[in-house]
Amino acid sequence: MLHALMGTGLVTSPVEIWKPRRKLLTPCFHSAVLREYLKVFNECSQDLVKHLQQETKKDFTHIDPPLALTTMDIIYKTMIDTTVGALENDRSQLINIMKSLADMSMSRHLKFWEWSDFIHNLTTGRKIKRQLKLIEDLIESIIQEKKKQYLSGNKDNVKGKRKAFMDLLLELHFENQELSEKDILDEVNTFIAALFGIRVHRETTCSEYAKKTCCTVRQCGQRNTIYKAEYHIM
Predict the structure, then answer these.
(1) How far apart (Å, rounded) are the C-alpha atoms in residues 85 and 90?
(2) Cβ-based neighbours of 44, under 8 Å, separated by 6 or more
(3) Which of 206, 215, 214, 212 has the alpha carbon at shortest distance from 86?
(4) How many Å apart are CA 228 and CA 26, to the nearest integer?
(5) Which CA distances in Å does 63 have to 18, 158, 214?
(6) What global pTM score does this model have?
(7) Coiled coil where (predicted)?
(8) Of 35, 32, 31, 11, residue with least CA distance to 21
(9) Cβ–Cβ contacts within 10 Å for residue 121, how many?
(10) Taking Cα atoms as reference points, which of 125, 64, 116, 101 lies closest to residue 192?
(11) Within 10 Å of residue 148's Cβ, how many Cβ atoms?
């Protein structure tokens, strides 16, 4: 499943592709580039705070869902410059697809009869392929739209304009010819999967986010330290 979604992205690529690709993508994560995303982090965090304030009116709430949805909002805004409004609309088609893939990704490990490729491909595997095709079509349509903007001269090179991860990949594609459109698709899908929902040992960004939130709540004495550190970064 991982190879079907990520292709030759950083997580699943063989070493001969991984080494030069990692070197190529490292500048995309320079501190100066990441600093431009702080506004997105702040906006989405404020939305999360408002959501959690409403949750305090309940006797009990699960912390994982809102954190996962906030993570998804951040990912799509920073990776492909697309607003999905996951936290406000958790029943959208895209959200349902990601949730479904997250659940089905573990199915083969838990159901021994799906260890057979034949049975898996006729059951859960078939559903996974349909869901992956929907995600691939969505990302592909965004790539083509971004490509049109780039070729038309609208490169968003205005000073201070934040560039999404996909914009940086397109620059590598057009200016250096070091990435193909398929490479761009694989890398974007890789980061979306790793950060949100295709659980490899369930260590995704949103799961770590939930753990750290719970630890912060329990360790009252560390809150000011965390706040000061984040304030310094901002």
Answers:
(1) 8
(2) 70, 73, 74, 77, 87
(3) 206
(4) 28
(5) 35, 39, 9
(6) 0.74
(7) none
(8) 11
(9) 13
(10) 101
(11) 10
Instruction: Please give the DSSP secondary-structure letter assigned to residue 133.
Output: H
pLDDT digits (tens, 9 = 90+) for 8-19: 888 788 888 888
Distance from C-alpha of 89 to C-alpha of 92, rounded to nearest angstrom:
6
What is Dmax (Cα atoms) for the chain? Answer: 57
Q: Look-up: residue for tokens 């594609």?
A: 173
Q: Is the pLDDT of residue 203 over 80?
A: no
Residue 44 confidence (pLDDT): 92
The Cα–Cα gap between 96 and 86 comes to 10
Report the C-alpha gap between 35 and 201 in whole angstroms: 30
Q: Residue 16: CB partners within 8 Å, gap ≥ 6?
A: none
Tokens linked to 43: 């906006």
Confidence of residue 201 (pLDDT cuts 50, 70, 90): very low
Cα separation values, 34 from 17, 39, 73, 156, Å: 25, 10, 16, 17
What is the pLDDT confidence band of residue 206, given thresholds at 50, 70 and 90?
Answer: low
Residue burial 44-78, b: 16+ Cβ < 10 Å; e: rest: beebbeebeeeeeeeeeeeeebbbbbbbbbbbbbb
